[in-house]
């Protein structure tokens, strides 16, 4: 399962450069492409709003 970004996202952009497979796109909230995400968790670690969570 891919990680997901919730409405808690404040569109700060911090997660964007952290993704090794460029699965994150700008937006409000930002969006993770589930077909690209490899569940590495790097983006969730840096999000100041704790808006990124493992998918279920
Ligand atoms: S979990 Fe890893 S691969 Fe998935 S969007 Fe976040 S940084 Fe990218
Ligand atoms: S780091 Fe968190 S708050 Fe910032 S753009 Fe990414 S998901 Fe949104």
From TrEMBL:
Keywords in alphabetical order: 4Fe-4S, Electron transport, Iron, Iron-sulfur, Metal-binding, Transport
Cofactor entry: [4Fe-4S] cluster
Domain 4Fe-4S ferredoxin-type: 1-25, 28-56
PANTHER family named among the record's database cross-references: PHOTOSYSTEM I IRON-SULFUR CENTER (PTHR24960:SF79), PHOTOSYSTEM I IRON-SULFUR CENTER-RELATED (PTHR24960)
InterPro entries, alphabetized: 4Fe4S_Fe-S-bd, 4Fe4S_Fe_S_CS, 7Fe_ferredoxin, PSI_iron-sulfur_center
Function: Ferredoxins are iron-sulfur proteins that transfer electrons in a wide variety of metabolic reactions.
Name of protein: Ferredoxin
A GO molecular function held by the record: electron transfer activity
């Amino acid at each position: 399962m891919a990680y997901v970004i919730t409405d808690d996202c404040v569109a700060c952009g911090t997660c964007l450069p952290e993704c090794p497979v460029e699965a994150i796109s700008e937006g409000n909230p930002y969006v993770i492409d589930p077909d690209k995400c490899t569940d590495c968790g790097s983006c969730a670690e840096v999000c100041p709003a704790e808006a990124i969570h493992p998918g279920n």
